[in-house]
Write a structure and sequence with these properties.
The structure is a homodimer. In chain A, about 40% of the residues lie in helices and about 20% in strands. Chain A starts with 5 loop residues before the first helix and ends in a 7-residue tail after the last helix. Chains A and B meet through helix 4, strand 5 and strand 6 of A and helix 4, strand 5 and strand 6 of B. Strand 5 of chain A pairs antiparallel with strand 6 of chain B, so a sheet runs across the interface. The first copy, chain A, binds a DNA duplex (30 and 30 nucleotides) through helix 3.
DNA sequence: TATAATACGAAAATGATTTTCAATTTCAAA
DNA sequence: TTTGAAATTGAAAATCATTTTCGTATTATA
């Protein structure tokens, strides 16, 4: 039903190495070419899709296109992390915090809405970027 | 600096009429054509961009492209709503709830992250769709 | 009016993502 | 091993939402 290929392994390995920041499909293909394991862009997209379905990576859609990042909590089955993404610098924090889980339960109990942590991205400003913020909007 | 045009008014009026559900740019243009106020697609996009910048509407990026919806709380300046979007049926609830504002404050105080409610969409399943959920994933 | 700034829209361009399809690879069975 | 059906690959083409171009039309003001 599904073969194991070297392209598959190469993509996953590259995502593990780039785990600090989300990466675009094109940049990932570029990295792979550099590292001597070129993988066609179509295949990169196919593997990313698979990995996302399998819950191993997060797909982060932004104004600038989609980025992918391996989920640091992918091993922990019971409890999922929520994503905080800085809209200025693009940095993403994978947060496993009681308050977020409490919110999850509140929304389910009181508003009959079950958040999917994997597809929810809290967007805003990280500390560093909030500090730099330009009050005149001239960014 | 900015002229008032009938296309502008037509787009806003149409968004007000379709306020129940998010609508795509193409569907909006279609609606406008139907209602006898045809507006070019490029202009529709330009107006949507303006309205979003002005904080009058929400832009909701999804796997199926972008949707736009007028913000029912746009008049209330002090407090912004958060969006809950059902990933199954696409329905969006604009929620002004104390727990969410508490979360906002918790993230700011403890995690040094300031959420931008306008760009944050909590994605998951609404009650109706959660009921229909298919445990075998054959959706 | 005149005119300068702004907005319009059809058509072309863009660009990320997906699809096509012939060639290649995988893996289990012979 | 070989074999062959099923799955995967990748270059190129297709898709498709969104943006840009650019000549024309509209707006507000003098």
């Amino acid at each position: 039903m599904s073969y194991s290929t070297k392209q598959q392994q190469a993509v996953l390995q590259c995502l593990e190495q780039c785990s600090e920041e989300p990466i675009s499909a094109a940049a990932l293909a570029e990295q792979l070419r550099h590292s001597g394991n070129p993988v066609g862009l179509a295949t990169v997209y196919r593997q990313l899709e698979k990995l996302e379905q399998a819950g191993q990576i997060h797909k982060i859609r932004t104004e600038e296109g989609a980025f992918y990042q391996i989920c640091p909590h992918r091993a922990a089955q019971g409890r999922e992390c929520f994503l905080l993404r800085c809209e200025r610098c693009g940095h993403v924090v994978h947060l496993d915090c009681g308050h977020l889980h409490a919110l999850y339960e509140h929304l389910e109990a009181e508003h009959h809405f079950r958040i999917d942590p994997r597809r929810t991205i809290l967007t805003g400003l990280c500390q560093a970027c909030a500090g730099k913020e330009d009050p005149h909007g001239t960014q």
